[in-house]
C-alpha cells in the first residue's frame, strides 16, 4: 500500500447525503483519495415545507479553527475544492484561509443561490464569490444557471451557448472552465464543456432520463478535484469525473426528496 493523495474540501453539509460535503468526501474516497474537510454552512431541508432549505452559516471563528486544524495537520495538501459557502462573511473567511496556503489546484463549484435564501443576500453572496473566491480558482465548474450568471448572458439554450459562456468566464482570469450542461440543454446527451483558454473539449454521455438528480454537480467537481490531487491532467480528470457521474446516475439511490440522488460507489 502506498500513501494516498490528499484533497481538501471547504463546503456545506447537506444532511440527506445527496449534496455538499457528504458527497465530496464519498467521491474522494471512491477515487482513492484521502479527504480532509471544513464545514462552511449547514443545510437541513424541511420535509414539512416542500423540502425548503433551512440554511445555517458556520460562524467565521469556527471556520478559521477548522481550516487551521486541517492545514496544520496536512501541510502538504495542494488541492482543494470549494463548494457552497453561503454568505459574504463565510466567503471572506474562507478566502483569507485559503490565501494563507500554497495550492496547485483550487476547484471552485460556484454554488450561487440556494433556495430559502433572501434574494438580496444571494446577490451579496454572488458578488463576494466573484470578488474573493473566483480569483483564487484554477478550475471553476458552473452549471447552466451559474454559467449564465457568471458570463452575464441572457440565456443559454444550446451546447454552443454554453461554450460561449465558458469562454467568457475564462476571460475573468480562470485557467479552466468546466461548464455543466446536464439534462437542461436539448439533445440526447448530457454535455459538459471544458475551456482551457485555447480550445473547447466536449464531454458527453447519454442522458439517463430527463429527470434531474441531486448531487451530480457536486460529485463531478469533487471527482475532478480528486483526480487533480492524484496528478491527472484536467482533461483526464474531467473524463473520469463524467464517467463516475454517469454510472452514479444510472445506479441512483431513490429518495423521498423531490430528486433521487447519485450513488458515488457505483
Ligand atoms: O447542489 C448544491 C448544494 C451544495 N452544497 C450544499 C447544498 C446544495 C444544494 O442543496 O445544500 C450544502
Question: Can you walk me through this structure?
Answer:
The protein has 266 residues and is an alpha/beta fold. The chain has a 9-stranded mixed beta sheet, with helices on both faces. 39% of the residues lie in helices and 21% in strands. The chain is globular and about 45 Å long. Helix 1 crosses helix 7 (216-229) and helix 2 (60-73) packs parallel to helix 3. It has 8 helices and 9 strands. GO terms for molecular function: ATP binding; hydroxymethylpyrimidine kinase activity; metal ion binding; phosphomethylpyrimidine kinase activity; pyridoxal kinase activity. Belongs to the ThiD family. Its EC number is 2.7.1.35.
Choose one word for the global shape: globular
**What is the radius of gyration?**
17 Å
* Range of helix content: 25-40%
Kindly estimate the percentage of residues that lie in beta strands according to DSSP: 15-25%
What is the H/E string? EHEEHEHEHEHHEEEHH
Bound molecules: 3-hydroxy-5-(hydroxymethyl)-2-methylisonicotinaldehyde
Structural class: alpha/beta
Instruction: Give the overall pLDDT as a whole number.
Output: 95
Tell me about the biggest sheet?
9 strands, mixed
The counted number of beta strands is: 9
SS field, number of helical segments: 8
What spatial order of strands do you see in the largest sheet? 3-2-1-4-5-6-7-8-9
- Unreliable residue runs: none
Distance N to C terminus: 23 Å
